[in-house]
Design goal:
DUF2624, mainly alpha, 84 residues, 0% strand, DUF2624 domain-containing protein
Length: 84
Amino acid sequence: MKFLEKIINAKLNGISGKELQKFAFQFNIDVTLEQAELVSRYLKGKNIDVFNKTDRENLLKEISNIAGPETAKKVNQLFSNFVN
């Protein structure tokens, strides 16, 4: 399981806005390209572990500050699909 977690974290830590938006749409989560770009710019190079509750909560707080609480809620929905 750790191997799969590392792959998912690596992908999310280097994801582009278009890729993030594509994943969101696959899970029926409406994210604009602008919102996805803001989130992807923040994620790049941060090495955040979305499987770690504290890392995920801190990330969502930052996303809320950067892109707004509604975007953070949408990103949380997307991450929940990966970690559960």
